[in-house]
Amino acid sequence: MRVLKLPYENELYELRKWIDFTNANLQMQFLHTPQEIQRVHQWINAITRGIQADYPFYATTLPCVANILFQQNEMGAIFLNPAAFGELVVIVRHIEAEPVVVQFWAEIHPRIVNVSRELYADGHCSTAAEKAVKEVESRLREKFSELKPGTTVPSKIGDVIGALISENGVFRFCDTSTTSGRDYRRGIHSLFEGIMAAYRNPAAHTNLQYEKREAMEQIMLASQLMYVLEKPQL
After folding, report:
1. Is residue 80 helix, strand or coil?
2. How far apart, in whole angstroms, are the C-alpha atoms of residue 141 and residue 181?
3. What are the pLDDT digits (tens) for 34-65?
4. How far apart are CA 110 and CA 93, in angstroms?
């Protein structure tokens, strides 16, 4: 399987090399050149741009750290600020330890991105997953109103799914004149019923907790079903 490359991977690698070298020679208190400082700032700026969507807190913090990372004394010599350097080390190690595949969100349905991405990036994975499923429910109810204007939307989401996507449902998103088309429709019907039964209904009664992997899988499923609802009516 091909590993997706982060857009700031090279800069992160170079910055980590510089951090390791500097940390190993921290007791020497050597001077830092303008060229070195410029390179460090360039690396930090590139990383900051790359992590804005997935690490909004670090994207705000990194430029502040960069601004105070180097200090100049009365003789004009430039020294490292040890407090800022320590903060930089923590941030870089965290980003390296938990790399976010930025391309993941580029493939997710925009409505799911709007309600889930920031929550997920801030560590609220369970809430992000719950919001994704609720957004699918909202779109289902909208779709019902679009295809059955003037009809009251059922209160139970299962009835909405049945009216839209069951064998005789009004949403004709695939050709059911073939066996494969009929099988596809039945499968999609089951997916909609399954996501509501497994995630939406329990969440209405208790606070569910998911690991990051589970939340990401739930968000991906919600996105897939949102794209199904965008298919043209045949």
Report:
1. strand
2. 24
3. 899 999 999 999 999 988 877 888 999 999 99
4. 30
